[in-house]
Amino acid sequence: MRRLASCSCGQLCIEVQGEPDGVGVCHCLACQRRTGSVFAALAGFAAPYKVFGTATEYIRVGDQGAKFKFRFCPVCGTNVFHTEEGYEQSWVAVAVGAFADPNFPPPQDSVYDCRRHSWVQLPPGIKAYEKDPT
């Protein structure tokens, strides 16, 4: 199954294959600021993946020292996907909203629950972690 995710204006797109390896939400303050929302919803996919268009990149260092490279559309500013340094050729995380698919699989994991807004309700059966479990 081919899945296509894109920014608001359609200039930046990523094509992934198959079902996601995992879907999760992150409530960390960096993700809240990055998305402009109260959490980020992400889906991980194994390579291969194809990128179409031009991206602006932003590198952020995570709590455990990993470097994440976020890709944004330079036209509309939408954050579409990111990779982790050292894993660019094998794995990509795509913003669930960029698929614009209300039938997309629900999250299985929630990280940085310590930063979750009190009014955000998690789906039944989701595994919640106070911080990043890795």
TrEMBL record:
Keyword tags: Lyase, Metal-binding, Zinc
Coiled coil residues, start to end: none
Listed name of the protein: Aldehyde-activating protein
PANTHER family: CENP-V_GFA DOMAIN-CONTAINING PROTEIN-RELATED, GFA DOMAIN-CONTAINING PROTEIN
UniProt source species: Phyllobacterium brassicacearum
InterPro entries documented for this protein: CENP-V/GFA, Mss4-like_sf
The CENP-V/GFA domain, residue ranges: 3-113
PROSITE patterns xref list: CENP_V_GFA (PS51891)
Short name of any one Pfam family annotated for the protein: GFA
UniProt family annotation: Belongs to the Gfa family.
A GO term for molecular function: metal ion binding
